[in-house]
TrEMBL record:
InterPro entries: DegT/StrS_aminotransferase, PyrdxlP-dep_Trfase, PyrdxlP-dep_Trfase_major
Pfam family, one: DegT_DnrJ_EryC1
Name of this protein: Aminotransferase DegT
Species this protein is from: Puia dinghuensis
Ranges that cross the membrane: none
Length: 362
């Protein structure tokens, strides 16, 4: 069986050696030494001054909205994981969807400005499949209209522009460290802010708003444990190998499938961009052809994922807004299996099966 992803796990002995440090101290949560060590290591790796390790990639979105005092309407993307939209709803904000760029799948800056109203307070954009949004255009729009910018960087760990992590942009950026991500802590996430005061507020929010017996603000339990931090510290050591492996696999898929009728993520020949090769999306000419191909793959126990599906503007519990590009892509896109120890033989089987299925669709 070949699933869309498989969790990378470090050598068990390395992981348990780190766990023993926490075990011996009896300090397994509440901002322990391993959590602090992971935060320091991630700040160094990403080149940011402020980063807090949190319990997951959804709570950090909620913390970002709360810390920036976001209310009213927030312009966001219809093409992301559902948490991007539900975080807005959870914080009593109104999502206003701006359609996506046909080529990059990220929110289209040209569609943002026309969606701004007097009730708009922020832009919440997602770096889709690890490919960065048009950060310069978004920040220009935000400055013009005095809007806050939050980037959902759940896929963006390891992606850089001009040697700078994309997670360092915006008023706040968030990331997910879920077990399906290329860098993971089993469950977890982080939140990054450039402003000192804002970062301190996020630190307080993560721990119920208090330090020891001194209470400063409201807060939430957004903490994470030493057990999860140990996984992150182990995995960070292997990140260069993980990124190199994914790049090699990604390029092989592209070579096998670029001359088909599939739309693939078109990486520009831009020396400024360092891509993390987080996902390999393939957009089929039609929903029918995609579904037929999925059935053929399933018979060989190959299980890609319809990701993202559905378009978030079509969710049944929100006011419907039409985003034709996102709806079209969401109905035709599949992410192919991509993980550290996926073999070339398995990739070849996947690609050849897709090609065979296309012949059946002719």
């Amino acid at each position: 069986m070949i699933n869309v992803t498989k969790t990378f796990l470090p050598p068990f002995e390395k992981y348990t050696a780190l766990l023993k440090r926490a075990w011996d101290k009896g300090w397994i949560t509440n901002n322990g030494e391993l959590v602090q060590g992971l935060e320091a290591a991630l700040r160094s790796y990403l080149g940011v001054n402020h980063l807090w390790f949190c319990s997951n990639g959804t709570v950090v979105l909620q913390m970002a909205l709360k810390a920036l005092n976001i209310s009213g309407e927030v312009i966001t993307t219809p093409f992301s994981y559902v948490a991007t939209t539900t975080a807005l709803l959870w914080e009593n904000c109104t999502p206003v969807f701006a359609d996506i760029d046909q080529r990059t799948f990220c929110i289209d800056p040209a569609k943002i400005e026309s969606a701004i109203t007097p009730a708009t307070t922020a832009i919440l954009a997602t770096h889709v499949y690890g490919y960065p949004c048009d950060i310069e255009a978004i920040e220009k729009i935000a400055r013009k209209h005095n809007l806050k910018v939050i980037y959902d960087g759940a896929h963006a760990f390891g992606t850089m522009i001009d040697g700078r992590s994309v997670l360092s942009y915006g008023d706040i950026s968030t990331c997910s460290f879920h077990a399906t991500k290329l860098f993971h802590t089993v469950e977890g996430g982080c939140i990054i802010a450039n402003d000192d005061q804002l970062s301190r507020q996020l630190f307080l929010y993560r721990s119920f708003g208090h330090l020891a017996d001194d209470h400063f603000s409201m807060g939430i339990n957004g903490k994470n444990s030493e057990i999860h931090a140990a996984m992150g510290l182990c995995n960070l050591e292997y990140l260069p190998d993980i990124l190199a492996s994914r790049k090699e696999q990604w390029l092989y898929y592209y070579e096998m499938l670029e001359d088909t009728g599939l739309q693939l993520l078109d990486l520009p020949n831009d020396p400024r961009l360092t891509y993390n090769y987080a996902y390999f999306p393939a957009v089929f000419p039609s929903t029918e052809e995609m579904m037929t191909t999925l059935e053929v793959l399933k018979k060989k126990e190959i299980f890609p994922r319809r990701y993202f599906y559905p378009a978030l503007n079509t969710l049944p519990y929100i006011e419907q807004q039409h985003c034709p590009v996102a709806e079209s892509i969401a109905n035709r896109v599949v992410c192919l299996p991509l993980y550290f120890d996926l073999s070339r033989q398995e990739q070849k089987l996947i690609a050849e099966t897709i090609l065979q299925a296309q012949k059946q669709n002719i």
